[in-house]
């Protein structure tokens, strides 16, 4: 398995996770089911841990030249990948809150909150709700913390002459941060945020990478059918936990993180053993999943608050309104991705991202 090869199955899971969150935020409740879809964040976190472990795996790195290592460019590339679109849409929302505050709900045109949002500093938006201006960005605060922990892990990794994988140092730092924040979670906003067990799902993703990497050769080929069954069952389980089953009193990292771990790990095994999906349209939605995640609140809430009062069928919690909101979100995300995000990422990586060629948006094989 080469690090510069694209795993289509993982991209499809990104599409599944993003679409789940988009549907969840419509507020629409399917008949005979409970509202569901927030588990998409858990799947995203596990995928993130998996991908970062794969990127930093020394055994899979291409030759970058004397003394060069992919870790040299890791944090820089993560910033170039995550920050520009997030800043753009955050600033767009801030401008809208200045001009149209009545449509913004709990979002205020606060320069202090804008500053904290742009720098990924968690703050209490109202009550005990810890969100940035662009509320969906709360998960990015965890992502950036995880990347920072891995960047520090890379420094330790070099210091110890590569004896211990950098992701191991990063994982330990994430765990230690969580434990250090627990005693202060009731009195400090930062401690309350980083003491949540959601950050453990990144570690599950790292574990999933090494578990799938251990499956090789004839054993891997024999496990393709069981892996396919596990993938399907874990997908159904994670949906059923929110949509069908009664409330279960377990930490989120166990309740939703473990099924996400099984889902991502089994999908990875299928990819590396030759059963990688060829559904290019789903892979493309997976490629655009970050933009879809960022823009869907704009689409759904704009339709709901501007057109919904005049046309009840466009309220986002109705079947028709939810369909229109989800469809518009996906179409706009694909446009932004193809003509904005993709060329921007290539330009930034080529000029500022170091020596390693980016293949994140490589075109998958046709069916």
Summarize the SSE layout with pairings.
Elements: H1 8-24, H2 39-55, H3 74-99, H4 111-118, E1 124-126, E2 129-130, H5 138-159, H6 166-181, H7 189-194, H8 200-213, H9 217-222, H10 224-243, H11 252-255, H12 257-272, H13 280-287, H14 289-307, H15 319-352
Antiparallel strand pairs: 1-2
Helix pairs in contact: 1-2, 1-12, 1-13, 1-14, 2-5, 2-8, 2-12, 3-5, 3-15, 5-6, 6-8, 8-12, 10-12, 14-15
Could you describe the 3D structure shown?
- Helix 2 (39-55) crosses helix 8 (200-213) and helix 10 runs antiparallel to helix 12 (257-272).
- Strands 1-2 form a two-stranded antiparallel sheet.
- It has helices at residues 8-24, 39-55, 74-99, 111-118, 138-159, 166-181, 189-194, 200-213, 217-222, 224-243, 252-255, 257-272, 280-287, 289-307, 319-352, and strands at 124-126, 129-130.
- It has one domain.
- The model is unreliable at 63-68 and 363-367 (pLDDT under 50).
- With 367 residues, the protein is mostly helical.
- Strand 1 (124-126) and strand 2 (129-130) form a beta hairpin.
Characteristic terms for this protein:
2 strands; disordered C terminus; two-stranded antiparallel ribbon; 367 residues; mainly alpha; globular; single chain; 1% strand
């Amino acid at each position: 398995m080469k690090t510069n090869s694209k795993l289509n199955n993982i991209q499809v899971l990104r599409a599944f996770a993003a679409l789940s969150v988009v549907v969840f935020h419509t507020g629409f409740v399917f008949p005979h089911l409970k509202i569901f879809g927030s588990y998409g964040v858990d799947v995203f976190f596990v995928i993130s841990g998996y991908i970062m472990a794969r990127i930093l795996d020394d055994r899979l790195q291409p030759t970058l030249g004397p003394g060069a290592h992919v870790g040299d460019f890791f944090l820089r590339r993560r910033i170039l990948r995550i920050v520009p679109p997030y800043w753009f849409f955050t600033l767009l929302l801030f401008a809208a809150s200045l001009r149209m505050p009545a449509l913004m709900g709990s979002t205020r045109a606060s320069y202090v909150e804008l500053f904290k949002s742009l720098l990924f500093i968690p703050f209490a938006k109202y009550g005990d709700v810890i969100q940035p201006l662009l509320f969906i960005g709360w998960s990015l605060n965890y992502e950036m913390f995880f990347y920072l922990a891995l960047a520090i892990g890379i420094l330790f990794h070099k210091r110890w002459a590569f004896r211990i994988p950098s992701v191991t140092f990063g994982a330990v730092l994430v765990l230690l941060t969580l434990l250090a924040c627990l005693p202060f979670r009731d009195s400090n906003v930062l401690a309350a945020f980083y003491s949540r067990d959601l950050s453990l799902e990144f570690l599950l993703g790292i574990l999933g990478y090494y578990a799938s990497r251990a499956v090789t050769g004839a054993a891997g080929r024999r496990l393709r059918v069981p892996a396919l069954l596990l993938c399907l069952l874990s997908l159904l389980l994670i949906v059923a936990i929110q949509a069908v089953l009664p409330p279960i009193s377990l930490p989120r990292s166990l309740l939703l993180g473990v099924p996400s771990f099984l889902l991502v790990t089994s999908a990875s095994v299928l990819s590396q053993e030759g059963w990688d999906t060829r559904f290019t349209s789903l892979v493309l939605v997976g490629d655009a999943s970050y933009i879809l995640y960022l823009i869907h609140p704009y689409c759904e809430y704009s339709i709901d608050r501007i057109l919904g009062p005049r046309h009840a069928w466009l309220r986002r919690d109705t079947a028709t309104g939810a369909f229109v909101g989800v469809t518009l979100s996906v179409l706009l995300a694909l446009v932004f991705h193809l003509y904005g995000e993709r060329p921007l990422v290539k330009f930034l990586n080529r000029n500022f991202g170091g020596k390693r060629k980016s293949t994140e948006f490589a075109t998958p094989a046709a069916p």
